[in-house]
Amino acid sequence: MDFPLLAFSVFSTIAILGSLLVIFKKNPVSSAFALVLVFFAFAGLYALLGAHLVAALQILVYAGAIMVLFVFVIMLLNQDEPVHDLEATGVIYRVVSALTVTALGAILVRAVLASKSMTPSGALTDEKIASLGGNMKAISEQLFTDRVFHFELTSFLLLGAIVATVTLAKRKSRGEEGEV
Amino acid sequence: MHMNEIIQTLMPWLILAAGILVTLLVSVIRVESKRPAQFSALLTLVLTGVSALQTVSLPGEAIFSGSIEISSLTRILLALFSLIGVLFVVGADRYLSKEKIHLSDYYHLLLIMILGAGIMVAAKDLVVLFIALEVMSLPAYTLAGFRRNDSRSNEAAIKYFVLGGAVGAVFLLGSAFLFGATGSTQFPAIYSWSRQSVTGSNLLFAAGHFLVIVAFLFKVAAAPFHFWKPDVYEGAPTPVTGLMSTLVAVASFVTLVRLIHLPALDSTGWEVYAASIKTTIRVLAVASLVVGSLVIITQKNLKRLFAYSSISQSGYLMLGVLASLQPGHGIAPVLIYLFGYVFAAVGLFVLLSQSEPRGDTGVELVDLTGLVRRSPLRTALWSVLLFSMAGMPFTVGFFTKYFIFISSVGSGETPLVVLAAMCAVVSAYAYLRPIGLMVMRDADPGAAQWGGGFWSQLVVVVSVILVVFLGLMPNAMIQYLKGIPLIH
After folding, report:
1. CB distance B43 to B19 below 8 Å
2. Contact A164 B184 (CB under 8 A)
3. What ipTM describes this predicted complex?
């Protein structure tokens, strides 16, 4: 077995097992740490694909910043109430959703398998990226030329998110009454 | 392209974006007063609408390396969104004070939502489309939970948010598949890929295409993707329900149509795929029509009633989409239907927001009993708008349904049209029963009081005038919208 395939198998196995742990662990902190595992495994997969910048960002942003946020939220909302159990939902629901998800999964897997015969296409081939001077340069150039509109639009997304958060989280102003 | 030209082309959007920032800034001038934000939002929307209408006949132009295309369609839609915004700024004033949730945030979120919707319909790139979808959706989730003290409003926000997040994930997965299959996220590149593809459609492309379509089927709540809608409609503050039913619905539906038209379905090798897309749309149309029309007659809560109404509207619109897949047919019937629906829906939701608060229960049919004696004018306004929803002649609702039906017959979907006409007759009962209760019955002792105030009544009157005027003279609107091509 050559190295990329071995590495791919290891990282994928970690990612899949980690995702299952995220769902089935009853303690939210355990779930959060299982999620860190998933993030790292994904970073490994990105690196294998040659997307080193994305791999680094995955670690920095997801495993670093977003995870801290998760843990903070768990800490702030930590309640002693019993954790809601999967058992609480009806059997029929669980069977139907399991079947549906399996069917959907089968279709998606088939779709991905069908792509095996296709050659990778797109403007940014490996050679093109190398000639531009690596991932970082290629992405930066895209971000400030062809994709500048995406970039600017994202700032409005963030603005919207800030206003939304403040709206939901701020204390009552004079226009409002009552307890939450 | 030169920077000046880009600015000129994008002017209406830039005015809106600048207006959002100004509105955010002026609302801190006097924190207690909501008037600065309200006034600034109104001014922004009027300027945006006027600027969009002024340039509406200019030819379409793709800018930012083909990320977005500004065309007649997107300009007229931005103008429509601004109009909806103006009506819901003016019409919601009293409702917000009455419910004690009059905050400047309503106006900020409304403007950001309109910007997202305005860019979403112009997006020619799956990534821009996704970001714009989120710019539109985030404020919508928040506004659904705007009555922070009300548990049902919170429930609506959470349901809408969780489902919206899942929808976003589905859309992204679909985009990734499309990118993998075609090598581009841009609509024209995907279109020309489908023209040149030697093998015709392939499974990876098909899976991606279906996933992005399913994401928007959730947004427009076509059955069987509709289960969230009644709960969210019921829990959200009434003007926000109105915004979801008009602004979000129109933007999502236009985007849905554009996504369905993403590949060139008439190319060689795509026959099987085109047929399966058509079958899917037929199934969706039948499901939405049947669910919407049958469940609507059992509803007592008015907001739930309008939720099922909008589900059946998705069914009628699917007929128009089906017709647009026929070579030589445009999306004019769909646009005409959406415009007609919006003009009536704005008035209906503002009317609905005029009932005095009744604590936990929403407005029920019983609250309308004997309204003709208590408030004859309001009864007349209700009646006209409900007539339009039922598709009665002399209202815009008649012509919009008529156009959907004839374009559908023209594309060989006669059995579906017969079914749709039967559903229209069945659901007419649901629209006419409130009128019966208003006119024939004495007021129930528990019926809610109604009081709108001048401004919200004005909005309803504007909506009624549009409905009647376009019902009597629909030609101008129809001729105009017929000339607008879909952008790929």
Report:
1. yes
2. no
3. 0.91
